Structure prediction request, 172 residues.
Amino acid sequence: MHQQLIDQWRSAPTQELIQHILANFHEKHRRQLPELIQLARKIEDVHNDHPQCPTGLADLLTEMSNELESHMMKEEQILFPMLAGGIYPSGPIAVMEEEHGEHDVMLGKLSQLTNLGMTPRGACGSWIMLYEGTQELIADLQQHIALENEVLFREPQAAPQHGTDFCCGSCQ
Prediction:
C-alpha cells in the first residue's frame, strides 16, 4: 500500500505533495488524536478491572499528540516552505527523519497496547471504536511518514548534463 502511494506521488510537484500531506495527514491527525484520547480515557475508566484494559493508552496517545503537534509545526513553519522554494536542507530533514523513527517506535507501543487492534470478546462499542481508530491512526501515520521520507524529503535529481554525466559520442 505504501509503495503504491509513494509511486503515485513521486513525480508530483513539491507544492502539490505538501498540500496533500497537510490536508490528508496533518489536519486528520489533529482531529484523530483528541477523539482517541477521549475514548481511551473512557475505556480505561469504565473497564479498569478488565484484564485486557489498555491501561496507559490515553497517556501514550497524549504523548503522541504532543510529539506530533511539535513535529508538524516545525514542518509547516520551517521545512515545508523551504522545500516548496526548492531548498532541500539536509540538517532539518535529518531531524524530521529522526523524529519519524521515534514516531514509529510509538506506533509499535500503540499496536502492542491495543493488541494489534483486536478487542476482547464482548467489548463494548466504544472499545471497538477506539481500536478501529487506533488502527486507522497507525495506518495513516505510517503512510504519512513513508510519503515524507521516500518522496518529499528526497531532493529531485537534476537532469544528466552532457559532458559531465554522459557523452553522446559526438565530442570525440
Summary: The chain has one domain: 15-152. Helices lie at 2-9, 14-46, 57-84, 90-113, 125-152. DSSP finds five helices and no strands in the chain. The chain has a mean pLDDT of 91.
